[in-house]
Structure formats: C-alpha cells, structure tokens
Amino acid sequence: MIPERQNYTTACMTSRRPPMHSSHPVFYRCESCGSVSIEYGGCPLTGSKCGCNGTRLRLETPGPDEEDRTHILSYVFFGGAQHNAVRISVGGGSHPMTEEHRIEWIYLLTYEGGQMKFLDTSLKAQAVFAMAGNDAYSYCDRSICRMGREHCQFQCKRGWEVYAYCSLHGLRHLVL
Prior knowledge:
Layout: H1 5-8, E1 26-30, E2 36-39, E3 56-58, E4 73-79, E5 84-90, E6 103-110, E7 113-118, E8 126-131, E9 161-166, E10 170-175
Antiparallel strand pairs: 1-2, 1-3, 4-5, 5-8, 6-7, 6-9, 9-10
C-alpha cells in the first residue's frame, strides 16, 4: 500500500510565508576545549565556564571587508517542490580547509529553528541543509531571486541567517 503523498513529503503545506519562530542565536566558544554553545532568546547561558572549566567567549562578527573574498557566504536552493535543500558555501567552497585554517562549522537559522553542520578538513568549505515543513517554504527556483534580494517580490527567504566559523578569522554572518 502506498501512503498518501502528504504523509511523506517534505514540502511546506502552507501557501504563505511562515512567521519566524526562531530567535537570533548567540554563539560561545570555549577557549580551552573549543566546544560551541548556542544561546537563544536572549536568556544568557548560566555561568561563563564550560564543562572542562574553560571560559566561554562570545563570538562576534566583524564588519564587512570588501577585500576578503575567502569568507564570502553564498547559498543555492535546489531540489524540487517535494524535496529540497540549500547549499551554503564559504568563499565559493574554496576557503582553505587545513587543520590550522578551516571553516569549522556552518549554522543556518530558519523559520522553525536552526541546523548546524561541522565540516571535515578533507571536504570543501560548504554544507547541504535539508528543508522540511515550514522551512521548505523557502524553496524558490524563480529567476527573480537571482536578480538580488531587493528585487524579490516573494520574500520567501527573508529572516533566515547563515553563520560560519573560521578557525583563524572568527565568525562570519549573512542575512538572506
């Protein structure tokens, strides 16, 4: 027996842009062990110490640097109406990925929460995030989106944010 289509689709079932149910994340990194903590909703993490007894430091994003091409965050939505995803790249995927200088993780803030991917040094500086439920509303393959966000009539991705952490240069941020 074949299940009904809506029982296994990852497509969004609403016809309007969903509201943001996520609050902006604040990232902390332990100076001793490197573990990452995420704070949501403005409620500060209890204590400034990590489990290893190291100090958690808040990660801040630097101002834009027009000359810095290796840290430019970009995205591409792909898939289809039933199954879709977004690929986030740092420096077009060409950011160095050595033990000393690499993108450690990429975080995508969506309507319903967020997803974090930790990157392997043997791969490119990019990650693919699967979309489902209200987050799947973001899928759009219309050419108008390629004209730039100021020309987009649909605003389906507004409010989403991308963060990437470089081991040498710190946190990077892009608002979609």
